[in-house]
Amino acid sequence: QVQLVESGGGLVQPGGSLRLSCAASVRGFSFNAMGWYRQAPGKQRELVAFITTGGSPNYADSVKGRFTISRDSAKNTVYLQMNSLKSEDTAVYYCNAKRFQNDYWGQGTQVTVSS
User: Fold this and answer.
1) Cβ–Cβ < 8 Å for 95, 80
2) Among 25, 39, 52, 94, which is most buried by a count of CB atoms within 10 Å?
3) Are 59 and 83 in contact (CB under 8 A)?
4) Nearest Cα to 78, choosing from 51, 105, 104?
């Protein structure tokens, strides 16, 4: 069974930084893509960033230039470096991993940007 375990969320002031990590507890296979989604209160879950195996990263327009996604395929781990955080970045952030037709999700980690 695949489990995705996120860490790194928390409370940060506007303009600050956080780094999220997501490790997949699986051995023997790799994912086609890994990425991050977020869901703010009262809103739908939205894509933040993703990166495919051997491909370039992709970002939502709202985070371009501020967030950086990276991946360690050997460890089945994906990271999200978030800089210049804004109050509108406040949300629960979910790790996602795709393998063919299958989607796997983490439990979510809260990111709160507030002074």
Assistant:
1) no
2) 94
3) no
4) 51
Q: CA dist 111 to 3, 4, 73, 82, 90, Å?
A: 21, 17, 25, 10, 5
Q: Tell me the helices (H) and strands (E) count for the chain, helix number first.
A: 0, 11
In terms of Cα–Cα distance, which of 12, 4, 15, 16 is closest to 71? 4
The pLDDT tens digits for 83-97 are 999 999 999 999 999
Name the 3-class secondary structure at 87.
helix
Cβ–Cβ under 8 Å, residues 15 and 58: no
pLDDT computed for residue 104 by the predictor: 95
Tokens of 81: 């470096």
**Which residues 6+ apart lie within 8 Å of 112 measured at CB?**
10, 11, 12, 90
57-68 confidence digits (pLDDT tens): 999 999 999 999
What pLDDT was estimated at residue 56? 87
